[in-house]
From TrEMBL:
It holds the Pfam family LZ3wCH. GO terms for molecular function: double-stranded DNA binding. Required for proper homologous chromosome pairing and efficient cross-over and intragenic recombination during meiosis. One of its GO terms (biological process) is reciprocal meiotic recombination. It is found in: Nucleus. Belongs to the MND1 family. Residues 16-74 form the Mnd1 HTH domain. GO terms for cellular component: nucleus. Its main location: nucleus. This is Meiotic nuclear division protein 1 homolog. Keywords: Coiled coil, Nucleus. It comes from Tetrabaena socialis.
Length: 207
């Protein structure tokens, strides 16, 4: 004997909605659970099915005091369905209009640009020129280091770096002179310290 198939989620929603529409009454959760079991919906699934209907605004819910009350009247469902149908019809009409506009624009473009042999040749020549331009751009990038503006920028950067290096050398010599005065008698220690940090009496300015 084949196993009994379970009730699908859609069927559960339809069966529960029948409870509301058949009676046009207002229910609390306990009543819905009892009636749902009679409709073949297991009690463990009742709250989830009910919540899905509430989330989709098919079943209304209102809390009064400590209890939640649920209802769904056929007239309300009908009004909601009609509104959705009208919206879909409006959307469909808009899509059809955009399609007609696009088809008209395409036809106009084709009429203004017939697919002639000359046009095909022109397009082929244009694509060839685009390929050549892309190649020239890549070649220019390869020779960028030789570009006069780039070379001038590198030269200016080098001059700035040279000035900065000489300025720091001035500052370091000033510091060395101050240290010799401040720590008279410890010249050898100072000389060793500065030599370890890359400066000695033979350090020269960059020309």
């Amino acid at each position: 004997m084949a196993p009994k198939k379970g009730v699908s989620a859609a069927d559960k929603r339809d069966r529960m909605l029948e409870i509301f529409h058949d009676s046009s009454d207002v229910f609390v959760i306990k009543d819905i659970e009892k009636l749902s079991v009679k409709k073949g919906i297991i009690s463990q699934a009742v709250k989830d099915v009910l919540q899905s209907l509430v989330d989709d605004d098919i079943v209304k819910c209102e809390k009064i005091g400590i209890s939640n009350y649920y209802w769904s009247f056929p007239a309300e469902a009908s009004v909601k369905l009609e509104a959705e149908v009208k919206k879909c019809e409006t959307d469909l009409s808009g899509v059809k209009k955009r399609r007609l506009d696009a088809e008209a624009a395409l036809a106009q473009h084709k009429a203004a640009n017939p697919n002639t042999e000359d046009r095909a040749k022109s397009l082929a020549a244009l694509n060839e020129l685009k390929t050549k331009v892309a190649g020239v751009v890549r070649e220019l990038e390869a020779y960028r280091d030789s570009d006069p503006e780039t070379v001038e920028a590198m030269r200016n950067a080098a001059d700035g770096a040279k000035l900065a290096a000489n300025r720091w050398l001035d500052n370091t010599y000033s510091l060395l002179s101050w240290c010799k005065k401040k720590f008279a008698g410890r010249e050898s220690e100072l000389a060793k310290f500065f030599e370890q940090n890359g400066l000695d009496d033979n350090a020269e300015y960059i020309e």
